[in-house]
Amino acid sequence: MSASDDQADVQKVLAGDVAAFENLVRRWQGPLVNLAYRFCRDRGRAEEMAQEAFLRAYRALGSWRKDAAFSTWLFALATNLYRSELRRIPPKMFAIEDVAEPGDPRIADPLKLAEDRDRAVRQAVFTLPPKYREALTLFYFHEMDVAAAARSLGLPEGTVKARLSRGRELLRSKLPQLLAELNWKEA
Amino acid sequence: MKDHEFDRILSSEGDLVPSSGFASAVMDAVRNEASAPPPIPFPWARALPGIAAGVVALVYLFIEAFRQAGSVPSAPTTLDKLSSSLAPAFHAAQAMGAGWILAALVLTYFCVKVSLFFSRDRV
Fold first, then answer.
1. pLDDT number for residue B23
2. Considering the entire predicted model, what is its pTM?
3. How far apart are CA A112 and CA A102, in angstroms?
4. Residue A95 and residue B66 in contact, taking contact as beta carbons nearer than 8 Å
């Protein structure tokens, strides 16, 4: 995956070679679908949103200024689309019953317990207000790179850091109740 | 729960692999987009005279309304002259009744002709 490959393909598409766009799609389909999935937790909807993001990218390809990497531009475009899509039709909220019942903790498989707890934490992120949820989603999607998350969200790094901190606080306050409902005690 | 625990949990999500037909579906949508005719632009050149005439008429009406509102008597204007010369025609048409029907028919005929004239190149 190199920036020059992206640039060459973009040039070809802008020159009228529509087929060259397929290289961009194949190169970036994974990250775009995964990012969409982190926003909505629904595979079908994630692919629909990612397809719309590619279509918008195709339409707006001429507006990509080469001062930023193609991926930065693409992620910002996709993030913007995903955020507005989810504000238009909010994601399906997960009920606590959707998480597997652990049963008696003394006989339950510890690996399974940890897995369920991790899932509960991820689902708890969904209960946060959008601005904190989006900051956390982008931060972890970009492998904990605040600058990259800030670029995708179009926000200053300081704002993203503040939202991450507040988001974690909210998550921490919600988790005990969530875990108690699952019969867990924090270690 | 500590920050590093959140980091571990939230950053350890497995990657989702797009379905096998995803790229083809995107390219189909892109090709459809590329082959679609460009949107028909609004015919500003044809609409502008009408819009301009409308604006002029509105401005004129406002000026006249303000003038009428003031109590200063003024000399008969072009509008006054026009309405006084058209008054007998209106009275006659009102008396006949059929005049209005004729006027409506003529107007309809012109509307249809003008619409067909503007749309003939697009059909």
1. 96
2. 0.67
3. 8
4. no
Total count of residues recorded for chain A: 187
| Residue found under tokens 């640039």 | A7
Domains contained in chain A, CATH given? 3-88 (1.10.1740.10), 99-181 (1.10.10.10)
In a 3-state reduction of DSSP, which class is residue B54?
Answer: helix
Within 8 A of B30 by CB-CB distance, chain A residues are: 18, 21, 25, 54-55, 58
Here the ipTM equals 0.79
B12–A59 C-beta distance less than 8 A = no
Q: In whole angstroms, what is the distance from residue B44 CA to residue B50 CA? A: 10
Question: pLDDT tens, A125-136?
Answer: 888 999 999 999
Bigger pLDDT: A185 or B42?
B42
